[in-house]
Give the backbone structure.
Amino acid sequence: MSGPAYASVNGLQMYYEVHGSGPPLVLLHGGALTIGLSFGALIPALAESHRVIAVEMQGHGHTADIGREMTPESFADDIVTLLGQLGIEQADLLGYSLGGCVSLEIVTRHPDLVRKLVLASTPTCRSDFALDGQLAADRMPTAADGEEWEAEYRRIAPHPNGFADLIARAAAMVGAIEDWSPEELRARFARPPSS
């Protein structure tokens, strides 16, 4: 299977795309973003050597929201279920921002599923999201970024007027992110050496 598709996953009709062939590489987008906004420029190069599976999580892009609470844990369960349906027993994960949080949940709960893990701009505690404004403005999304995100959402979402609700639900999810110290992260994700 290649190209765009939907899968019935834990009450969702989850949108995903498959590109290329080779070892599976799962792309997990950032919060309020889409496959195209997070990875559009990268997919052609990645698909030269991998079977790229790019997903849009609950309430994002083509995947409609459902009444379920948005959490990295539930998003991780959705990805694991989708990979099971696709017959993928092990994959590399590339998670950007929220997608990185979801990737961390997957590797914590299903370590045998993850061959390699690449995290980009992934927060590991609530303060990483700059909720108190401690990061310089040049590291935060601009108003123009927000306008681009909303325009893309309105263009492809099943419910084009739901962007403000997505932002509110994503903000609630950020507020519930678990704080992990560097020591906890090392302990959580340490793997015994292979023999």
User: Anything to note?
Assistant: The domain at 3-183 is CATH 3.40.50.1820 (Rossmann fold).
